[in-house]
Amino acid sequence: MKLGTIRRKHISFSMAVTFSFLAAIFNIIGFVSPFWIVSKSESNLGFQRLGLWEVCFDQFIFPEDYVSKAYQGCWYIYYPEYKYIRFWLNPPWFYLVQILSIISLICNLAGLLMIILVLCEVYGTKERKPHFVVMGLQSVALLWTTLSHQ
């Protein structure tokens, strides 16, 4: 192999590894972030913010709740106390976003594991199979991330 070809492959592999690690970091940040939807500060309706797994209220009373319970604080989105407003907190499309985010995170982390194994030469860099597995896992992660954040 020519030196120029080897150098180009090394640069492209280094860029792929770097972008894969950055994608994993951003994917994890988005997965755990409680700031997917944030209310405006001037609106004083009691709703503060909603994340993929957490919701925050400040004396929020759901208008259609016949009990007129005031919700306070930040809690897990599937907290039993939210059973009367769960249909409002988690519409069907939100379940899909949660599922796609989980699949994306799993594929991204599995792809990173494969990249680490390739970098440590557990498989050896001469084999093509690990590279295709990494490309496949990262492609699935990209697809699910794109679909879940639309």
From TrEMBL:
State if Membrane is listed as a keyword. Answer: yes
What is the annotated signal peptide range for this record? none
Q: What kind of membrane protein is this, topologically?
A: Multi-pass membrane protein
* Localization (cell): Membrane
Q: Name one Pfam family in it.
A: Claudin_2
Question: What cellular-component terms does GO give this entry?
Answer: membrane
For this protein, the parts annotated as crossing the membrane are 12-37, 93-119
Protein known as? Uncharacterized protein
Organism of provenance: Schistosoma haematobium
